[in-house]
Structure formats: structure tokens, C-alpha cells
What does this fold into?
Amino acid sequence: MAIVISNIKTTPVLVPFRHPPVTASGAIGELPLVLLDVETDVGLTGHAYLFVFLKSMLKPTMSCVAAIEELVRGMNADPEQVDPLLRQQLRLLDTHGILGQVLAGLDMALWDIRAKSEELSLAKVLGDPKEYVKAYNSCGLWLEKGDPEKLADQAQELLAEGDFSAVKLRLGYETFKEDLAAVRSVKRSCGDAIDLMSDFNQGLDCKEALSRCQALDGEGLYWIEEPVRYDDYHGSSAVAAAVDTPIQTGENLLNPLEFQKALKAKAADFYMLDVQRIAGVSGWRAAVTLPEAESIPVSTHLFPEISIHLMATTNNADWLEYVDWASPIIREPTVASGGKVQVPTTVGNGIQWNDEAVARYQVE
It folds into this structure.
């Protein structure tokens, strides 16, 4: 019996950060999320959320959801039918930006419904899942002006939170001297047994990226992430070819086709995918099965609640990026222990709202 989409409910919230992000490309003071509840005629509801970066983007995102709802109301709730049909109908529009995010969020919620209809976890629906996925703590170590020893202290706190063996440090200070001081301070504090990832958040031009990244060789970084604009595949490729430390990119790739372009350009050594940008669960599945991607380590960007299911069923899975950003509004948030996250076995994708917190953080 077909399950039919009957309604999509949206709820805008502003959630406080424990450690507000400050990167070379800008700062974010609060976490603006649009919560999605896709309702069906059989009483099953699929849950997902969209991260829209700016409070001012909450209303246009909800308006876009309302426009998509007009198209999908009464449609079979099968994500393998809905996503390709919508993308065909919307081919003459730009399906990046807000529209692309909304399509991805709908896809995530529909896969939740699929899993619930089969009374299985999302990971089990997607394949034969691993029991655990290794994770690094990405909740802090933002750009910190002044004493780099503050970063060293915070690194110890982040590692202790889930007995992590890896953390991520943001770079892209005004001078390389400051970048180097931050790296050495955290490395000295953590020791060689800890993996230290770094991220320039697209903050450098190619010339400066080559200079800084080559100078960081030998500092023991696990990877250097997005030293240049994410869509400058050839610039990123030049950096990757000239630098010994692995270059990581991918969180901003907008669909599997863009991922394929980056792979063919050899834009990086490692790739991380963002389930909201890569076109949802369906987009992730299409991306990681590209022939060029089969032997390349794939990690995640944000959305650990759904990403854990995807990583559990991805053969070349590397690291889960652990963030607790949405944890305050989720009833049973993702947690790490022993530097790993256990793959959920509960039915669906595991997202249920903490109604009291949602009401507290909801905005008009």
C-alpha cells in the first residue's frame, strides 16, 4: 500500500552555540534551523532539519518549503520516486541555494518515513551497517585572537567530552605566524597520539594557500581543509599536488555531479560530504558510488544525526564530524564515547524533537 504525503510542517528555531563558530570566512552567532515534519496519510511522520546560516534566511526557506509542499502533497512518499521527479520538474530553475537545501531536507525526511514504514533503522534500510563510526570533535577551536594557549586548553576539553582521539582546528588568521602558533600550541597540548585536522574555510587565494600549506608540512596535521574556494577545483588541485599534507574538501559540493567534477580535477586527497548540500540521502548514495570515489576516504560535514547512518553503510567511510549544534532540540541527540559514535538501531533516522526546547527556541 502506497504511503502518501499529506502535509509538511515547518518550525523556525534559533539555537545557542556552546562555542560560536568564528572562521576565516565569517562568524555565526546563533544556529538558525528550519525543522521539517513531513506528514503522511498513514500517521507516519518524517523528521529532518535545515541549517540556513542566517536568521534572515528562515522565512524564505519556509516559503520555499511551502511551494514544494504544493507539488508533493498527495504524492507517494517514496524518496526514490519523489526526488528524481521533483528535480525533473524543476530542471529549468536553479536547484542550488535555498531550493536545493529544501529538496535535500525533504529527501532526508522521506527516507525517515521509508525506514519507519519498514520498522528498521535508516542505516539498516541503506545496507549492512557497521556498529560504530570513528568521530572527531568539531565543536570548537575557532579563530581565537590573542593567546594561543587558550586553544590548547580548549582542545583538552573537547577531547575529554567523548574520549576523542581527534579534533579540528580552524586556521586563516591574518598572518601565517598566527596560524603556526595555533597549530603548535594545540599539537603540543594534545601530543602525537591525537589526530589534528585543520580548516581554512576557503579563506586563502591560491598563492597564499600554496605558501601557508607548504609551510605547514611537517607540523603533523591529519589534513588541511578548504584552503581555497570550494569551487576552484584546479586551484585546490594545484595545492594538493604541491603539499605533502592531505588536502580535504567537499562540504560545499552541491550535488553528485559537482563531486564528480572535483574528483576528475583531483581537487583533493580526501573528501567530506554535507548531506544537505549533496542532495540529501539520495544524493549521498549517488555520490559515494561514483567509480572515481570508490577508493577515496569520505568523511562527513555536520548533521551527525543522519550522517552516522550514511557513514555506517559507506565502504570507504573515514571520519564522522561530531558537532552538538542541534542537540538541544533533539530528544536523544548523537553522543560520542571512546572517540566513536554508535550507529543507531532505533526505527527511522533517530530524530525526535525535544518539544520543550523547540518551544523555547522557536522564533516568529
Summary: Residues 97-117 form the longest helix (21 residues). The chain has a mean pLDDT of 96. The chain has two domains: 5-119+355-361, 124-342. Residues 161 and 336 are 8 Å apart (CA to CA).
